[in-house]
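From the methods appendix. Each design record in this collection lists the tokenized structure first, followed by the designed amino acid sequence. Records were kept in a plain field format so they could be parsed without special tools. The example shown here is representative of the layout used throughout.

RECORD:
FOLD TOKENS (151 positions):
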């Protein structure tokens, strides 16, 4: 397995894994549709200008996981950037083996992009206690809790 920067030829696999990831979201549970086109547009924007995609791939370049990270000026002080994880996914057969290394790679890439901080998001139905232990171990501090309401 290797970690590398996402590239346009990964889009088809990213969109497919994104759909599996989607099934674990509140939006899916509320019947919202999955848009492969929208995921492709977001991934392209991240690769070209808005941040980066870090990919976990096997020797044949099959995508087995990814981190989508937006890097933007910090909301309260434009003199530095902040990174926000938009999606963090590991294929079921690779879970427990590569997740920590993928996260550390995301942090490293965020620093390369000038980010002074990085925020990670955890969905309630994706074992938030385990995620909290991992994040705390890596030095993350619980900063916010997000609530979602359909309007």
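DESIGN:
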């Amino acid at each position: 397995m290797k970690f590398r920067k996402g590239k346009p030829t990964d889009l088809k696999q990213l969109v497919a894994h994104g759909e599996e990831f989607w099934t674990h979201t509140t939006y899916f549970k509320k019947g919202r549709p999955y848009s492969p086109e929208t995921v492709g547009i977001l991934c392209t924007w991240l690769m070209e200008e808005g941040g980066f995609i870090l990919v976990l791939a096997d020797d044949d370049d099959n995508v087995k996981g990814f981190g989508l990270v937006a890097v933007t000026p910090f909301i309260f002080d434009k003199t530095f950037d902040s990174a926000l994880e938009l999606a963090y996914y590991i294929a079921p057969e690779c879970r427990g083996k590569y997740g920590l290394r993928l996260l550390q790679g995301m942090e490293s890439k965020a620093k390369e992009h000038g980010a002074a901080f990085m925020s990670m998001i955890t969905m309630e139905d994706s074992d938030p206690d385990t995620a909290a232990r991992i994040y705390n171990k890596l030095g993350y501090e619980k900063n916010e809790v997000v609530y979602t309401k359909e309007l």
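APPENDIX NOTE: The helical segments are 11-22, 26-29, 36-50, 99-112, 128-137.
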